[in-house]
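ASSEMBLY PREDICTION REQUEST
Request ID: AP-0331
Submitted by: J.K., bench scientist
Number of chains: two
Total residues: 877
Priority: normal
Notes: Please return the full assembly, not individual chains.
Input sequences:
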Amino acid sequence: MSKIDPGMAAMLDAYLFENSSLLEQLDDILLRTESAGVFTEEDINEIFRIMHTVKGSSAMMGFESLQELSHKGEDLFFLIRENKIDDTSFVYDLVFRMSDLFKEEIDLIQTEDYEPSDFSDIIKELEKGADILAGKTAAADSSAAPASPVAAAGASDDGAVADFGADFTTVIIHFESGIEMENLRAFLLLNKFHEETEVADSFPKNVDSDPSTASIIADTGFRITFRAEDKEAIIKLLNVSLNIDGFDFIENPAGAVPEGGIPSLAVEVAPAPKAPVQEVRAEVRAEAHDAPADSAPAKAAANNPIAGMGGATKQSIISVNLAKLDQLHDIVGEIITTESMVISNPELEGLQLESFHKAARDLRKLTDELQDTVMSIRMVPLSGPFSKMNRIVRDMKKALGKDVELIIEGENTEVDKSIVDNLNDPLMHLVRNCMDHGIETNVEDRVANGKPEKAFIKLAAVNASGEVIITITDDGKGIDHERVLDKAERLGLLMKSRSDYTEREAQNLITMPGFSTNEQVTEYSGRGVGMDVVKQNIEKCGGTVTVESRLGSGTTFIIKIPLTLAIIDGMEIEVGGTVFTIPISMIKQSFKVTEDQIIRDTQRGEMIMIRGECYPIMRLHERFNIMSEVTNFEDGILILVETENKAVCLFSDKLIGEQQVVVKPFPPYFSRYNIKGAGLSGCTIMGDGSIALIIDVANLIEN
Amino acid sequence: MTEAKSLALAKRGDKPASSSVARTGKENEVTKVLTFLIGEQVYGIEIPYIIEIIGVPPITTVPCYEIPSFIKGIINVRSKVVPVVNVRACFGKPEIDYDERACTVIVSHEGVSVGLIVDQVLDVSSVSEKHLARTPELNHVNNNKFIDYILEMADGVKLVLDVQKLIFDHDVAY
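STATUS: Completed
Returned structure:
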């Protein structure tokens, strides 16, 4: 961090966060517009805003190379915006590359000994791109209307007021004296003008990139020529704009300027248009002082011009330190516990407390709401990491020449923030893997197998059986387990004799460290580290990754993430005083039975027939070895639970109710004991402060 | 207190140390020990390990046959799930019902928090070197594996527990 001013260090976090999210937004827009084939005006404005904010904040932080890079990118979109160029296809690769370099640089900035990278190559290319765009513009201009802004602007670089005809009018804007950064203010204003009207010309030029223009603006004001018909809107705009001291309209500028002096002699001409203007200016100033503008609230914004730029679209999202959320969550839990201690305090027993109970109910309602809100804060949808895959698929599609469609399902499934962070890398590796190894290189191979030419990769997420299950499916060539075994044998990765491996086990060998069947290392995969990283990262958050594949028809990677802190809908049941929670998603139904419905087999096994199907009964009090008074089927209740390949009726004392719960893992102290094997996946703290155990249905009924 | 803390910290850094107080060698250096009763015997735990002392809240049993019986289950300590160990059972003494004097002492070591259920919490004693009893071959005495050092004080003998072993050394315990 040697390059960063110590005073700026505090702002670095904000800078990094903001720019990373802006660049992701940029990618999103680009991907969307690329597939749509056209930039809407809104998109361009948004891109422009992003580029500009990035540039501004980079400049503020003193990252000159980044500033220059974003400036060039901005130029490109400036041309696209100003000239309504339709064919922009070549821009995408350029801008994607720029955004990648930017992200890399942002990563670098976070390292200890950051040295600014050299972006001259990409900058040259961006310039070239800009030239091509500009070239197109020029060609278009010669045939199109002469009032085209860029062409006109070229004619008036000398500072004189050019004549754009009666359709246009010119205004000179003066900022409050001594506010500084006039050029950036002028630029912001200019952007607002663009929203309101067609701007034909402005002076000085390049206010956004040339700080020296600030003094010119301070001295002579900022001049903008725009469509006369929008004058009223502009006056309105100027009246509400900040830090503007006054503005003067120059009607029919050509008449005000001595003939012949317009384009040729800059030095002589410069004072000429000033003369008539000065008087008007004085008048407007006087007016402005009579009716003081709304300059007071402007000060705050003025101190932070960068923030002002970003303000165009208000951000409704803030970033919060995760530790603070954890703390908040704990406090809420404590409040709820304390609340029930107060409300059901034994000392209140037998008292007539009407208004107390009413107040207590209100309090309970509020704390419930508070708990729900706090729970939801930590949860983020998977759409973030999922949509990043769009970009990877796009890039690899081009590089590998494979026609692949990415299908995304269930991206609204919410998981804990910390899990999302751990998912990015695994997902990237798996998608790359599918693209590189999974999908056939030759379309003919696909067609020969009766598959459509266009391949697909499907990313899906579901919240099932208390786990978040993410699947990455491709319809490619599948995994040849014989080849996997060959390779594993060669690498010495086999743990038992080759013939002992089932097809499934063999396929899962590919997640071993150092395994890669791709003989050739490509840019994207083949180094044998990808799957390893996947496994490690998933295991870090306590999950598992498995492979299911059928040779010839495709591969599915299944990531199962335990529900650390995930919220599930649970059914609370009681067994001999202990409260258990069963994920609602696993429950098919619950019902009362009579003794005569029970079928008993020869080995004390109990079963029940429901709609023609026979289900075994598992007595939870026996399974968990809990003393319970409820042992007759008539007194308790049966709950039919189902996993993929098994269904069982659980016998419990009673149902308590349905509740959303935050799943907490067992304390690490228990990690040496096989609790999961016992059929418990975690625990949850309930509203009254007691702890319920969450049943892991799959493990419970399969072991 | 800062001295006591540094003493305890030095001790943690030097694991496994049998007797840290003895090693400091200075008469005046003290640590503080929370003392409590199991049956008739006074035990102690050095203060820096202790997070808090609460009553005995409702305990949720974790039904898993692998978990030894002296680990009673889990409790909710201000929204944190904390395992509880019955020290009595851990020492192989017969369990008794929790009365109003029974307490859960929450201790923390290496980031792991555990609640220890004791019969009764007594007080906090200042300990200096002169209180240290010589304990030759302590570890050879049966049932003493959890004891770090022994104090001989005016009001009796106190056994200071080794929290590390008490929390983690289960496989040898019964």
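REVIEWER COMMENTS: The interface with chain A takes residues 58, 60-67, 74-76, 78-83, 111-114, 167, 170 of chain B (CB under 8 Å).
SIGN-OFF: pending second reviewer
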